[in-house]
Amino acid sequence: QVQLVESGGGLVQAGGSLRLSCAASGGIFSGDTVGWFRQAPGKEREFVAAIIWGGRTTYYSDSVKGRFLVFRNNAMSTVYLQMNSLKPEDTAVYYCAARPREDGSRIIEEYAYRGQGTQVTVSS
Question: Which residue of 10, 38, 65, 74 sits 20 to 30 Å from the alpha carbon of 17, by its own alpha carbon?
Fold first, then answer.
């Protein structure tokens, strides 16, 4: 059973940076996709970024492309989301999720494993 634990959220001013971590246990394999999603109050959960665990392929939503970077440390079984040039509209609870397909899916319902989330608040 895969378990995912997010950390690194907090309060930051607009224009600032945060790095989120997603620590995985229970078995993440080279053919898996690890994704980041976020949910703001009153809104649907949306795709942010994803990475193929065994490779270098990454995926980003248009709203974060060029500002966010997703990368992994296989030895530590951790995926990171480096968030730069943060905007108030990036405020949300951020979740990581994993699925045993090498496809970078943008659909949260296709991810069998999900973390509890970490709050990111960007002040203006």
Answer: 74
